[in-house]
Amino acid sequence: MSPLADDPAFPEIVDLVENTGDDSAFLSDLTETFARVYLANVEETGHVIGFVHSVTGPSAVRLISLHVSEETGASLRRYVWQAAAALYAAMGIREPLTDDPDPPSGTAEELADSAAATLDAHAIKFTEACLREYALNPSPVYLVAAVDATDRLRGSG
User: Which pLDDT tens digit goes with each residue over 40-64?
Assistant: First the structure.
């Protein structure tokens, strides 16, 4: 039995998100929130890969939304919210960060090079997604999360 099946609150919250309106703003809010979830939880839980997917999934929806109908896009946004929420419900123990962290030093190119040097697919795709999302929504949380994941995944590729 999955932990979510035993959690009576999850079915009640999984459909609470409003994903109508500006789909880009929705995806920016979602990716930033889950980058904050990553930073708040990864140290204590060690669930790097799971929390990485809570950002890369919504970011991937941004890429394919341009190529599907609005109805399909709305379904994708709803399901990616549910997937990210499920990851948080299953692995998260802390609320997302509310304060903005100080941005790391280094250029986007240096962050990408550092991720590529790990040879870890998750470090690379997470950094790419964070840099792409940062270009649309310049919150330093994306950069800090990318650096953190790269450091944690170094040598695991």
Answer: 999 988 999 999 999 999 999 999 9
Report residue 15 CA to chain centroid gap: 19
Q: Output the pTM of the full model.
A: 0.89
Residues 91 and 58: their CA atoms lie apart, in Å, by: 18
* Cα 106 → chain centroid: 21
**Are the CB atoms for 149 and 127 separated by under 8 Å?**
yes
Q: What CA–CA distance (Å, rounded) separates 81 from 33?
A: 11
Can you tell me the distance from the alpha carbon of 86 to that of 79, in angstroms, rounded to the nearest whole number?
10
Tens digits of per-residue pLDDT, 52-95?
Answer: 999 999 999 999 999 999 999 999 999 999 999 999 989 999 99
What are the angstrom distances between the C-alpha of 5 and each of 37, 41, 91, 157?
22, 22, 14, 33
Contact, 102 vs 143, CB < 8 A?
A: no
